[in-house]
Prior knowledge:
Layout: E1 2-9, E2 14-20, H1 23-31, E3 47-54, H2 57-70, H3 73-81, H4 83-92
Antiparallel strand pairs: 1-2, 1-3
Helix pairs in contact: 3-4
Amino acid sequence: MHYVYILYSPSTDRYYIGETAFVSGRLEQHNGGFYKNASTKSASDWELFLEVECIDRSQALKLERFIKQQKSRKFIERLQSESKIISDLLLRFK
């Protein structure tokens, strides 16, 4: 099982999109500064904004890429409030 996750940092007011098999462990790594050259190094208060379960890594990578290509804060916020968007995207990238 793989997941696409979206983190939010209140201190920087930014979102981060990634994919992993273990969301909780990845969140700890981002907050702990494990990724020295990542865009998440600017904060240590990342919180889980959204977690989407995918059938495999391939689907997760496609979904992650699509969300990043939108380059839209409003789109990311709509993903949390309108679950049909996620359902449609998961079918699209099956």
